Amino acid sequence: MPESGGHPDNSSKLVFHRYESTYFLSQVWITDNDRGREVSRSDAEREMAAKTMLKGNPAAILRATKDISGKTCIRHHETAGPEQR
User: Fold this and answer.
1) At 60, is the secondary structure helix, strand, or coil?
2) Could you tell me the residue range of the domain that residue 13 belongs to?
3) pTM of model > 0.85
């Protein structure tokens, strides 16, 4: 599903949701393109998100960015619960 407006800098990005030690690809952003692609949640991700919430553990969003110079930066953000789409 296309997504726009959320890619403020000039870099490619992969966005993952993390539940405990399992990662699920969520978004793909390509350099010089202001429209990204959002990956639909799989049944496995929905199940893992529900289990994580029941345990009271926070979900995490991990952003892996590669800028035009080739440098990779990983940002980690804890959330109170899995993001709802």
Assistant:
1) strand
2) 2-79
3) no
Cα gap 85→79, rounded to integer Å: 14
Q: Is 83 in a helix, a strand, or coil?
A: coil
Q: Is residue 57 part of a domain?
A: yes
Determine contact, residues 72/65, Cβ cutoff 8 Å.
yes
- Residue 28, in any domain of the structure: yes
Q: What's the structural domain count of the chain?
A: 1
Please list the pLDDT of the chain residue by residue as tens digits (85 residues): 545 555 455 678 888 888 888 889 999 988 888 888 999 999 999 999 898 888 887 777 777 666 556 666 767 666 654 444 3
Q: Give every CB contact of residue 67 below 8 A, 6+ residues apart in sequence.
A: 9, 10, 11, 73
